[in-house]
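Before relying on records like the one below, remember that each one covers exactly one chain. Contacts with other chains, cofactors or solvent are not represented anywhere in the record.
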Amino acid sequence: MLKLVRPSVERADEYLQLCAEYGEVDKSNHIHIDSIEKAKERIERDLLLEDSETLPIGRVRQFVRWAQNEEGIIQGTCRIRIELNEKLREKGGHIGYDVRPIYRKRGIGTEILKYALIELWGKCHEDALVTCDDDNIGSYKIIENNNGVLENKIFDEESGKMIRRYIIKRNN
């Protein structure tokens, strides 16, 4: 059974290992987290975005969660945004998620998104916007497994890729 938990500075070493694994496979935005100090800084920043009354300019309130299994192993991460700015309304959406590479293709991403939607809808009454790159078959299957309906595709000039934009109705 998977559950979503708040990040913890005390587990920064585990988070650092997860970031290294993401970086080896995806060259993801986690690749710059390459020391225990940077891992702790990222965790503290993530917690600040959840707990702070005032946010840095351009940032929205978001809840970062780690997805862990019964043994307490972090199998993925997600970002749950209860409000969206203009950029996130176009791409990014309410929820972003990553599955640790060694746990991919096991249904874990579908579970992460399912639990993230529950947490989102506990704080937000909107339908969920969830996006992914058009060539990310695994991600769009995860969204579709959670009743995502393709709204449209847009071209992202920043990445040079097509982005799929899905809506998941709150009453599903």
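The CA atoms of residues 76 and 99 lie 4 Å apart.
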